[in-house]
TrEMBL record:
Superkingdom of the source species: Bacteria
Listed name of the protein: BNR/Asp-box repeat-containing protein
Length: 297
């Protein structure tokens, strides 16, 4: 499976606090286990709040340079600071896309939706305007999701992989990821865990923990070699070798909720959703400015 949309999924937002090693481990473990909950639709129905108050995932379309933001209130596009809602109001907990214009999502149905709860894996072939059921309806709520060269990988309490979006195989190594990141034309997948950022070279079937792997809340690929991530304290990190090693960029954000990245003219461009809105860097994470403030929709 190939795609050219750069996708990322959410690591749950955490309160601003100083976390020791034990606290960070517990924080990531709670996040990883959260998808096992199967709440009623009435409990998960989106409420009237800022669209950016609860961001679950983001992606950048390299053809249009449009930022896609998957939220508790559905899918939004951000272009030159303008925010527009696309399609129905569903709680999109996981979000990814492929090169043929398909979007994949998971989560919970919104008010008036005929989708089951949880929605399992759903897809859109019209830019998010409508969604169709693919598989695991009423069974899976993939809070962590990505699409690699090997197919869709998602975590709903069990790490699962599908080459066609319909039939699923459980990964041989059952890690507990808070966040998954992949690229369309690569089998490499990154997973944030309480042990550190783990790495797979076979689409998520097997995993290794690189030496000195940092504990990050979420990661995203900009290209096949370059990945970015955010630590629990908001410190931004970058990897130039597809997640084998990491270094701090010098930039920080507060209360990160989701991340995505894309190549720039010279440096890496990074978007991070926070409690304040969407922060943007065009200097590989050295500095950030607010692209869209929360409530601008």
């Amino acid at each position: 499976m190939t795609q050219h949309l750069i996708s990322a999924t959410k690591a749950h937002r955490y309160p601003r606090m100083a976390l020791g090693a034990a606290g960070v481990a517990g924080l990531l473990l709670v996040t990883a286990c959260a998808p096992q909950e199967n709440q009623n639709a009435s409990d998960e129905s989106p409420v009237q709040e800022s669209s950016f108050a609860h961001v679950h995932g983001m992606a950048v379309d390299p053809e249009t340079d449009q930022l896609l933001v998957a939220t508790h209130n559905g899918l939004f596009t951000v272009e030159e600071g303008t925010v527009e809602q696309v399609g129905p109001v569903n709680d999109l907990m996981g979000f990814a896309a492929d090169s043929e214009g398909r979007y994949y999502a998971s989560g919970h149905p919104g008010p008036g939706s005929d989708l089951p709860n949880p929605v399992g894996l759903i897809e859109s072939n019209d830019g998010g305007k409508t969604w169709q059921e693919l598989s695991r309806q009423g069974e899976s709520d993939f809070h962590a999701m990505a699409v690699s060269e090997e197919g869709v990988i998602g975590f709903d309490g069990t790490l699962r992989i599908s080459v066609n979006g319909q039939e699923w195989t459980e990964a041989g190594d059952q890690i507990q990821p808070a966040n998954l990141a992949a690229l369309p034309d690569s089998p490499v997948v990154l997973a944030t865990t309480q042990e550190g950022v783990q790495r797979s070279e076979d689409g998520g079937y097997t995993w290794t923990l690189p030496k000195d792997a940092p504990v990050l809340l979420m990661t995203a690929f900009a290209d096949a070699d370059t990945a970015v991530g955010v630590a629990p304290d908001g410190e931004v990190h970058i990897s130039r070798d597809a997640g084998l090693s990491w270094e701090a960029t010098g930039g920080t954000v507060t209360e990160p909720g989701a991340i995505t990245a894309a190549p720039g003219d010279e440096d890496v461009r990074i978007w991070i959703a926070t409690a304040e809105g969407v922060e943007f860097s065009d200097d590989s994470g050295a500095s950030f400015s607010t692209l869209v403030e929360a409530g601008e929709n």
